Amino acid sequence: MITIIDYGLGNIQAFVNVYRRLHIPVAVAQTAAQLDGATKLILPGVGAFDHAVQRLDASGMRPTLEEMVLEHKVPVLGVCVGMQILANRSDEGSMPGLGWVPGCVRSFKSVPGLTELALPHMGWNDVSPAEGSALFKGFENEARFYFLHSFFFECEEARHSEATSSYGLAFSCAVRAGNVYGAQFHPEKSHHFGVGLLKNFAEL
To answer: Looking at residue 186, what DSSP letter applies?
Structure first.
């Protein structure tokens, strides 16, 4: 069962609609008890890093999620800020992230030479998947997704970068560490590319 984690952030219904159109069973969890039976998890998110961590903590689901993801290796896909909080920390806030994918979240404007870069990075952009990525199966040579963000994920190790895009610099727009996946772009807003990615995640 694909289960969308509803902790008050992100367009939950958009993900539900995609999976229903694909005839893939989907559920929404707002409590730890509702996570029971989940075989795949999606962690959406919009807004600020610290606020997302606080909302996840307040939901009461975090301890159960950590057990499922870290101990039982249930695949999880973080999206947008849901991807960013997979990191250890962020330039945007002071709270620690989940630390499921080693790295930090940086502001584009913290990079020398990019202080005048227009932010947010908003709109469609090309994505270059890592070779053999199961998440991008079927559109390795033509992948475009919708972005809306001002911070980017910097992996501690290059092997955790699942795909790159470019906005002022090349950055990791998708990450992976074992069963933990993240996408900075919005698959739920990315038409057939996003539908294909969410279908691939369901079939991992």
So the answer is: B
